[in-house]
Amino acid sequence: MSRDPSQPNIVLILADNLGWGELGCYGGGVLRGAATPHIDRLATEGLLLHNFNVESDCVPTRSALMTGRHPIRTGCRQSVPPGFPQGLTPWERTLAEELKRVGYHTAHHGKWHLGDIPGRYPSDRGFDEWYGIPRTTDETQFTTSPGYTPEVAELPYIMQGKAGTPSTNVVVYDLEQRRGIDETLVRKSKDWLSRVASTGQPFFLYHPLVHLHFPTLPHRDFAGKTGQGDFADSMVEMDSRVGELLTAIDELGLRENTVVIFASDNGPEFREPYRGTAGPWTGTYHTAMEGSLRVPFIVRWPGRVPQNVTSNELVHVTDVFTTLLHVAGTAPPADRPIDGINQLPFFLNPTTEKSPRDGFLFYIKKELVAIKWRDWKLHFIWSPAVNQSKGKLESPYLFNVVRDPKEESNVMSFNTWVLQPMLRLRAEFMRSLAGDPAPRDELKEDWDL
After folding, report:
1. Strand partners, 399
2. How would residue 85 be classed by pLDDT, with cut points 50, 70 and 90?
3. What is the pLDDT of residue 439?
4. How does pLDDT run across 32-59, given as a tens digit for each residue?
5. Second-level CATH architecture of 9-348
6. SUPFAM superfamilies of this UniProt entry (predicted)?
7. What is the DSSP letter of 156?
8. Where are the domains of the chain?
9. What are the DSSP calls for 117-133, one per residue?
10. Nearest to 237 by CA among 277, 285, 172, 186
11. Dihedral angle over CA of 281, 288, 429, 348, nearest 10
């Protein structure tokens, strides 16, 4: 295991569609019918962010996490069905590729959703090995859907692969496999950790969980455990799986020199009966409301990140890429615009330092929907709920998300001064977008689904 403090181990655990208000440490837990003691304890051991922001759905967030670049640059603007072009182009550099370049062992166990053809699987993009699903979990419903046959739409598979060899199918990803996959993923990660712990090299484990993505079905061992239905049972299972990973880190003697991050890729589920909650915020993923943007984020680094601290400083998912590269003693690629900002000084001193980020632009697909700047949110398109958009606004709506967390009172008439810094932020981003050297991918098209 790495004992070099200049190159600590990194474990990045990403929940799927876990809303801001679900966990006990974010005001949920038992109030949601599901205690989350393991993640709550992790929150007391490090820094918990109240204002960590992501993209609109799974693919955009995961591309931003892996590249430090907004999806409007990379082309990973939305989730698309199997059989259609998707994934990161070879020109993009992933977090795994950059960490591997400086000596890290790398593994991915979980949901990828950044490429489902040879050349774009995790083992092609910097991971020594991987096990999991190349796309998403709603595909588990295919085999029980009326009229479905593999001849008209390809079967979903759990897959595996190692760098330098082709990735292969393991088993059809159906509803029964969906119930058991997070157990299997944790077992894979624990086995990998035990193998790399004695190598003397630092490692990067990316463990994107499947919970709580719909259909939100718990492992049989957790079914009925809460008495509050499948969603609450799945939350309890998710917390338990995170606890297993944290226990494995401790038992292998890795805790002191390992950075652990737990976060979510998107806001809560909006589909019944698996609907989640964003707590005090309005909205779900696929919207530009705070409930879509803000999700849980906890970072633990013993002796470096102080314990039991919470912060409302603004951080964006692209910042994780840049920050973790600085944690590993390296820097992002210099041949392309990088949207991620180094948050390491803030993470190490959250009670005295401020986040260097003032704001960011928020796109859904290829539309600029909103700008968030400090305590303010400017909406160009108003869509407070999925499929309830009112289209482009003649006069944008402006909200102060501290005084008005549910974004109910448009204060544009009294605060037009806010347009200056916000539109300046937009102009700077547009200039960088126009000069972005990223080549167009011949497989990329606009899939307005």
Report:
1. 377
2. confident
3. 78
4. 999 999 999 999 999 999 999 999 999 9
5. 3-Layer(aba) Sandwich (3.40)
6. Alkaline phosphatase-like
7. P
8. 9-348, 359-434
9. STTSSGGGTT-SEEEEE
10. 186
11. 30
Sheet of 297-300: strands edge to edge? 168-172, 157-162, 129-133, 105-111, 203-208, 9-15, 258-264, 297-300, 47-49, 309-311
pLDDT(2) > 70: no
CATH code at 359-434: 3.30.1120.10
Q: Which residue among the candidates 70, 113, 211, 286 is catalytic per the annotation? A: 113
113 is catalytic: yes
Q: Which residue has the tokens 């990803």?
A: 173
223 neighbors 229 (Cβ within 8 angstroms): no
CA-CA distances (angstroms) from residue 266 to 58, 103, 286, 329?
A: 7, 31, 9, 29
Active site (annotated) includes residue 58: yes
Q: Report the mean per-residue pLDDT for the chain.
A: 95
Residue 442's pLDDT band (cuts 50, 70, 90):
very low
Distance in Å from the first CA to the final CA of the chain = 45
| CA nearest neighbour of 370 among 26, 30, 55 | 55
Q: Judge whether 329 and 248 are in contact, CB under 8 Å.
A: no
The pLDDT of 342-363, averaged and rounded, is 98
Q: What is the pLDDT of residues 243-267, one digit of tens each?
A: 999 999 999 999 999 999 999 999 9
Identify each DSSP E strand in 209-296 by its residue range: 258-264, 294-295
Burial 230-258 (b: 16+ CB within 10 A, else e): bbbbbbbbbbbbbbbbbebbeebebebbb
Ranges of beta strands (E only) in 54-174 are 105-111, 129-133, 157-162, 168-172
Does the global pTM surpass 0.90? yes
Residue in 58, 108, 207, 379 annotated catalytic: 58
Tell me the pLDDT tens digit for each residue of 101-148. Answer: 999 999 999 999 999 999 999 999 999 999 999 999 999 999 999 999
449: pLDDT strictly greater than 50: no
Residues 222-241, mean pLDDT to the nearest whole number:
98
C-alpha–C-alpha distance, residues 322 and 329, integer Å? 11
Tokens 């496999």 label which residue? 177
pLDDT band for position 3 (cuts 50, 70, 90): low
CA-to-CA distance for 253 and 277, rounded, in angstroms? 36
* The token pair that represents 57 in the structure block: 């759905």
Quote the CA–CA distance of 17 and 238 in Å, as a whole number: 12
Percent of the chain surpassing pLDDT 90: 91
Strand bridging mode 157-162 / 47-49: unpaired
**Are the CB atoms for 318 and 332 separated by under 8 Å?**
no
Sign of CA dihedral 298, 300, 304, 306: positive
